[in-house]
# Entry
Amino acid sequence: MRESLHVENKHRKLFSFVDKMRPFASVSHHFGITLGKDQRRRSKVVKGVLNDPVEGEVSVYFKLYGYRRLKRSLSRILKETRSKGEFSNLLFFHKIGIPACEPIAQGEYRNFLGIPRNCMIITREIMGAKQLDHFVRDLELDDLSSETKLLIRRNIIKSLAHNTKKIHDHNFYHDDLKWRNILVRYVAGGNYDVEIFWIDCPNGYFDKTGGLRQNHGVIKDIATLDHLAWRNCTKDERKYFLSCYLGCCVTDTQLAELADAVIEYRKRKLDD
# Structure
């Protein structure tokens, strides 16, 4: 068996407990998971803590990916694992100014043939944040004026639209831009200002086909967001998202064409 563990330099002090002979197994064991059958599930997330000699306890999430099917495992012999892809994608988000969970470490566990059996990623917890779907649900129950709620919702929509356009301008496509992969929290001391964070992006990719996949990537990302938006947002709010995405010079025709393409894809691929 071959085990590997990559830790960002500034976080190495969190992993003083790691057995250098078995780094993957020792980290997995630290989070209460022993190598074996229970690691063959597609993914498992555990919340835990790592100890910093100065900062003290650091709250993190440990996510384990399993490769149960041989075909899926074989496809990763020469291709990066899901955890490695997610790790680099989160670093990319930070690089271009998109708030995202902080990646701390990632590792792989392969058999003697180099076939991956498991991989993992550890990220720092974003304190006080909720999944977008939970945040929107709770917002409706808050004792706030309708004007304040509308302002908060529009701030979220604007942030999502601008960040989605930002990755697409870099020819990057998220491929799993679901509401549960977006976290929201109020800015401390702000007047109901919110911060938006992106998490969970193992499938994101850069289009290396010279633009052949551009239209598909754009439509799929926006349609994935719209999968819950059409149930929880007004038509004006969804139109506002597309307007923010396309920019100030958008025409009604461009807006209508994008809206039709998104709705058609959502109904065909995503809706129950």
Remarks:
- The longest strand covers residues 56-66.
- Residues 146-169 form the longest helix (24 residues).
